[in-house]
Amino acid sequence: MKGKIVKVEEINQGIKEIILKLFDRGIIDAVLSPHPLPNGESFAHLLIKDRGILTQTVPLPPIMPISGAKALRDLTRLGKIDFRLLAVMRPCELRATIELSKLNQIVLENISFLTLDCPGVVRIREYLNHPNQYARDDALRSTCLACVHFSFKNLPSDLHIGIGKGEIYLYPQNEKGREFLTGIDLSPTDDLSNWLEQIATTEKKRMAYREKLFQEIRNKTKGLEALDRYFELCINCHNCMRVCPICYCRQCFFENPDQTRIEAGGYLNLARKKKGIRFPTDRILFHLGRMSHMALSCIGCGNCGDGCPMEIPVGEIFSLIGAETQKMFDYQPGRDPTEPIPVLTYREDELHEYEDVNR
Amino acid sequence: MKAIRINQPFNESLRELLRSLLEKGKVGAVFALTRIGSGYSYTLITDPKLLDQITPIDPYMPVGGGKMLSRLTMIEPLTQPIAAVIRPCELRSLYELVKLEQANLDNLLIISLTCPGVRPIRGLATDRGETLRECCQICDRFIPEKSDLTLLCAGEDGNVSTILINTEQGERFLEGLPFDYVEAELKVPEGLKESRKKKRQETFSRLKPEDLGMEGLINIFGRCIGCHACGRACPICYCNLCYFDSEESESHPKELATDLELKGALRLPTNTIFYHLGRMIHVSLSCVGCGMCSDVCPVEIPVGTIFTRIAESGQKLFDYIPGRDLEEKLPTSTFKIEELKDLGEA
């Protein structure tokens, strides 16, 4: 496999220089990238056209306050852009972007994607509360430690940048990516097997963690009672849904009063039937409903867990259910923009193994 | 003032009172905070046996009780009496929601308490000690406004419970129930109001929102991830669909491109600070300073403290205290030709 190896002193600086070259050569008109806040305490996605601002950007910060897919959705929900945008993204952000484009929430036209090898992100509160001590493995989201889709494989970006020690690996994923490289006078002629070995090592480590984590979650969530315990601290704030890059509904079913609210007498009847009910109602139902709506597109980013004020491991259970339902349909969210989401396709003859055998 | 005295700790006393109300058929259900596993939830209970599990005095507020009672009574008034135990700020928010036509008080027996404050709900997940919510630390309205019954709680040692009977409705519900009736006065710990007020002044002068300006706003709200959790947890924010989640708040890519051209860069999603300003304008006259917003913020912005401070200014301007009196009209719903001249052009 061939690409371009570039020696760098600092990873973010190295990536930024590539972006700046693409910008200076007029290959792109604007960049979407994470960017430090003026007070430096966090990062936000910035759409940048000004070169001075671009020089300050940080393509791969230690946290992911929101998914870049959500930023791109805000930009293109109502239509395509008419300038050439380079969106700099982690693999899970691009995967979410692709899913949203299938769901007609993002228009991909005129957007090129530069993806980066992702070392994982630090849990946001960990980062904000301990800004100097976050650089350790146990500060990372566990969904990141369990993520095996952190590199270029099965990722429809144009150019991917792999990350090594003191060097980055520029790998064109398609013709456009190759044009980008030649446009900035870099030819993809270096052998990348060193990088591939590093990826394989990380993949193995992540896979082991993933299997262990998934087994733990399976054990913790068997049956309704266990599931109830898992979400015991849930206060029904629905924030997991709000920060989820896939959950795109303007108004969630569970927040639509026409669907979910009943008369006082109805609540009292319900309470009488069960001797007592929680208020608000539908705590577990919300999570199950959300799961059945988006699990096939769940890219396992873990934003839901970061957004949970009660620190419930939401991302862990959603990643697990996502992975298992996706397996059923041999579907991988975000792998290919042309691969239809299984719920959008109908086959008369499928899934017989899940039919009720006792019927 | 007439009161009942129960020789038991607060939670136990309230259970006894509520059980009595439920068993005698005075109410059809009880609405109260309940510890379930390691979490908390409000519950609506009809079986007296389950009342053993309620924990109305535990120092947590998983959701605004006023908001929940609005949800319960929104479509139609209660057809059967229920007793609800809620804190003073929850009661104030309930009154605001009644004014906003989002809740109904018919058939509702309200039991409140002199409130010692609650702890941040996240503490349940992180074991973060016994510190109160910042909004509670600076709250000087911890005596309930016009509840039917008031448990004297703040500053009491908790071995004996005194429950004041404030209203005719309260008296009517208690009629014939076998409790010790005594004379008692509304009593709050000496100096509590003053110390809370002092802390309030200190906190506000540290935050200095009057000096914020755009830069200060970016400094405080810059880390916001746009999840709008504060709005959804807010007992006053009642809109089914917030303007900032609606299509009206979205911009066409062409408009955004123009903005980008003008500014050189554009934060996406847009409206991060604007959302907070918009919400502030919409809710601050009714803001009861409960602190739910701070509690649910995933990036720990002191939303509640800032909103409480801004609310104080706005409310002072109209001599309005949210939830003080049901008859007192919301300033935004009244029109006076002659007012606020000092805010006009010089």
How many DSSP H or I helices of chain A? 15
* Strand segment tally of chain B: 9
- Portion of residues in helices of chain A? 40-55%
- Helix and strand content put the structural class of chain A at alpha/beta
| Shape assignment of chain B | elongated
Rg of Cα set of chain B? 22 Å
Strand order of the largest sheet of chain A: 3-2-4-5-6-7-1-8
Alpha-carbon distance between the two ends of chain A: 53 Å
Question: What would you note in describing this structure?
Answer:
Chain A: It comes from candidate division WOR-3 bacterium. The complex is a heterodimer of chains A (359) and B (346). Chain A has 15 helices and nine strands. With 359 residues, chain A is of the alpha/beta class. Chain A has two domains: 2-210, no CATH class; 215-352, no CATH class. In chain A, helix 3 (68-76) packs parallel to helix 4. The longest helix of chain A is centred in the middle third of the chain and has 28 residues, at 193-220. Chain A starts with a strand and ends in a 31-residue tail after the last helix. The mean pLDDT of chain A is 95. In chain B, helix 3 links the parallel strand 4 and strand 5. Chain B is α/β, with parallel strands linked by helices. Chain B has an eight-stranded mixed beta sheet with strand order 3-2-4-5-6-7-1-8, with helices on one face. The interface between A and B is large, with 76 and 77 residues. Strand 9 (276-279) of chain A pairs antiparallel with strand 3 (39-45) of chain B, so a sheet runs across the interface.
